[in-house]
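Work Package 3 (structural annotation) set out to generate three-dimensional models for the target panel prioritized at the project kickoff. During this period the team completed the workflow that converts sequence records into C-alpha cells, so that structures can be stored uniformly alongside our sequence database. As a representative example, we reproduce one entry of 933 residues exactly as it appears in the project archive.
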Amino acid sequence: MFSKNINKVRFSLLLMDEGEYYFDDYSAVYYPPSNCEEDSWQRRINGRILICSNSIFFEPDDIKLSIMKFPYREISGVGPWLNSQSSTPPSFLASKNSVFYIKSSQVVEMKENDKNHPYIFKQYNNIDFKFTLSYVKQEIVLELIKTFYEYSKKDKIEHDSLTKKMVEERENKIYFDVTQLVDMNERNIIELKCSKISPLAENPGSLLITNSRLYFQPMNNIEEHKLKNYSLESIIRVLKRRHSLREIGLELFFDDSSSLFLKFSHTPVRDQVHDLLVQHLCTNIVHTNEQANYLLKWQNGIISNYDYILYLNNLAGRTYNDLTQYPVFPWIIADYHSSYLDLTKPETFRDLTKPIGALNPNRLSTFKERYHQIPDDQPKFLYGTHYSTPAYVLYFLVRQFPEYMLRLQNGRFDSPNRMFHSIEETWNSVLNSTTDVKELIPEFYKPESIEDNGLFLLNSQNLDLGVRQDHNVINDIVLPPWANNNSKKFISKLHEALESEYVSQNLHHWIDLIFGYKQKGEEAVKADNLFYHLTYEGSVDIDSIIDPVQRASLEIQINEFGQTPKQIFTTPHPQQTLNLNDNFINNNSELQNSNGFDGFNNNSNSNNSDEIRFSGDIKNPLNNWGSLNYLKLNQNIKLHKDKVSALYLSNNSEVIYSVSLDGCLKIYSLKEKRQVRSLNLCNLALSSFQLSKDEKYIIIGSWDNNIYVYSVGNGSISYSITGHSDAVSCLKLHNNILVSGSWDSSVKVWKTQKASNGAISINKEPIADFVDSDTEIRSIDISPNGTICCSGSSDGVLYFYDLLSLQLVRRLHLYDDEVTCIKFTPDGSRIITCSIDGTVKLIGIEGSEIFSFKVSGEIHCLDSDGSTLIIGTSNGLCLWSLTTGTETKDSASPFLSQTYNDSIYSLNVSVSTLTNKPVLLTGIENGSISIFN
C-alpha cells in the first residue's frame, strides 16, 4: 500500500532507480570538498553511506541537509584516499587510516529538510568526495562498491544479470536467527526466497512460516524491523496475484486492515505457499461463496456500489501494492461546469454503456480508422493507451504522494501543463484527446468517514509544482462550481452520485466492459473496448521468452502501460434489482471488515473502514463456553407431552424452566430431581418465553394471541395482554423493552413496568408496531446493547429495526424458506441466522454475509458464545467454529455421537456458576429434556 516512511531515516527504496537493489549501509562521516583540509574537517557531516546496485547514497543525520546520490555511471574512480596531491595526509585523517574517495562528475541531491522536492542534479569536474567509516573495515565496503562500479560499465542486460546473481547469492546467505522468533516453541514449516512488493518498489528477502507465525526478513535493513512477523491467526485472506503478467504474486490481508504482497520465483512455489496457508495454517480466513453471494447482495441493495466495485477489483487481482494493477473506478459525472449538480437528470451522468474512448463519436472514428489500418498479421487494438496505468494513478495522487511521482519521473515532477490541475480540464481531456482514456481511482469516491477523504486534491505539502503556460500556478485542484471549492464536498457529491439510482441501474454495463464479457475478444470489438494486446492476461508467456532484451522490453511495456483486470464474468452481468437507497441507512464497507480489501490509505497500519454503526457501544464479552465436544448426557427428563419450544437454566444451574406446544409451563429442580411447578396456561401452544433477570417472573408468548406474565413466587399468572391478532411466535426481552413477533406478520415493541413490589407488567399499547413483513414472523432477537432488533419471517426475509428511532433500517431477503432462528453474537457485531432448509448464514451487523453453510436436516434452533455455534436439527446436534467457519468433527466425542429418535426443537447453553463449565439443555420433539454437562 501507499505508506509514509515511518522510520527515523529519510532514505527509502523510492529514491533508487527502477530495478535497483539496496544492499548495505554503514555509519560514515562525509568531508565536504574544500581547498583547506582543516575546513573540510570542521564541516564534516555525520551520517550513513548506503551501497546500492546502481548508485551510492550518503544520508546525513541532520535532516536539513540533502541526501547525496552518486550514480556509478558518473563515477570515474573510487578507492583509499592517499592525498597524492600533498606530501602527507593531515594528521587528523592519517590517524584514522580509513579515508576513501569517490570521484564523480555528478551528485544528485534530494530530500533537503525532509521535503519531497525535485532532485537537484549538480555537475562537477571529477572532484573527490571523501568519507571515513566508523565501525567497519574500509576494504569490505570498497570491495562491494568496486564490484558494482565495474558492473556499471556493462550494458544493461549484462549489468542486470550480474546484479541479480549477486542478489541471489546474498539471499542464499540469509539465515533466520531463531532467537528472534516470537515463541521458541514454534515449529518451522517452510523457508524460501521471495520479494516484498510495494508501489514502485521491490525488496528481496526470505520468508519463514512456522506453525503460528509468518516472518519476512529483507536482505537489507530498509524495513523498520529487521525481522517482521505476522500471526497466522491475524490473516483473514490469502489471494493469488499477478506481477508483470506472471502468476507469481501472493497478497495476504490481516485483521488490522493491513496487507502484504509477496513475489515468488515461479508459479508452483507461489501455489505451494498459498495452499499451505489456506488449507492448513490460517484458521481465521473468511470463507464465502464469493462471486454468487456478493452478486446477490449487490442485486438486493445490501452492498453499496462503492463496495461492490472494490470487491470486483479485488476479485480481478487489483491491488494497492502494485500501481500497474491499481483499483479502477468509473467516471460517473459528466457535468463539471454547473453551479448545482442535479442527480435526478440522466444527462448529469456519463454513459456507462460505453468505454471512455467511445464517449466522443468523432474521436472514436479516429480510433477506428487507425484500427482498420493495422495489418491483419498484427494484434489489432482501438486504444494504444490504457484506462489504468502507474502514470495515471500518480497523475491524480501527486499532491498526496509526491515521492512516488519523483520516483516514476526520475526525480522530477511532470510538466506543469500536463499535471492534474482542474477536474473539468481532465474530463475534457478524456473526452477529446486521442492519447487519454483514463478512468478514475477509488480516492474519488471515498466515504466521508475515511480520514484522508479528498486530501489528494489539496497541495497540503506546499509543493512547488510549477507554473502553466497560462501563468496559473499549480496548487490545489480546481473543482467544479457545484463543489464550492470544498474538496470534501466534491468527494461526497461524487460518492452520492455513485450510489444514485441512475448509476445503480446502469453500473452493470460498465462492469461488462472492465471485468466482464465485453472486456476482450469479439465482444470487446463490438463494444469499442479493445486495448493493446499486452495489457491482457495470458497475452504473453514471459517465462518462455529466452531473449533477455526482448523480455526486458516486454516487462517495461507491461509496467509502464498498465494491465487489464482479470476477466471475472463471461456472460452479461445482471442488473441491480433494487433501488439501493431503499435498503441502506448509510454506506458501509463490508469488504474492509470481512474480506481484507481494506482501507487503501497512506498508513498500512490504520483501519479506515466506513461501516454502519448504530447508537450505543457494543462491549459485551464472549460467554466463553470452552469446548463442548466432550459434554456427556447426564440425564433425560420427560416433562411435556409435545415439543419443547423453549427452555432456560437458572443462574445457579439448579432449576430448568420450559414451555411446550402442549400449552404447559414447567419448572424442574435439578437439585431435588423433581418437578416443582406445572401450569397448564391455555389450550393452545406456548411458543416462547423470557426470564426476568431476577428469575422471579416469566413472560410467555402463546398461540392464543396473548402475552402472559407468570410470577414464580406466587405460582400464578400476574398479568396478561392481547399482544397480536394471531399467534405470538417469538419473544425477546432486553432490560425494560420487550419485542414480540407474530403470525399476523407484525413485530411489536413494548415497554415493561416494574412495580414497587417487583411485579412486572406490560404497557397496554406498544411503542412501535411494525407491519413490514408479508408473511409470519418466526424468530426474533435484540442486540446485546439493546439498540437493534432483528426479526425473521417465514419467506426468508430479515428485518432490522432501530430501537432508538423505532424505524425499519434494513430489509434483507436472506433465504428462500422460513427463518427459524436469529442470534446476535455476544459482542453484537454479527448475527447468526438459519433457515428450515438447513442453511446457516453468519452476517455482519450491516447485513454483509461473512460465510454460509448447510447442514443435513431441518434446523429448529441454535445458540452461540460468539466462537462456537451449536445447532439443533431434525437429525440431532452439530457444532461449528465461528472462528474458522468449519464444522467441528471429533469422532471421539460422546456428545457429537449422541443420537435421538426425535428432532431437537430447542436448546440452551449456559456456564454453570458452580463448576464454571458449560451446561447444555436440549428440548426434544417428544417433550423430553436432555441435560449435558
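Confidence is low (pLDDT under 50) at residues 84-89, 579-623.
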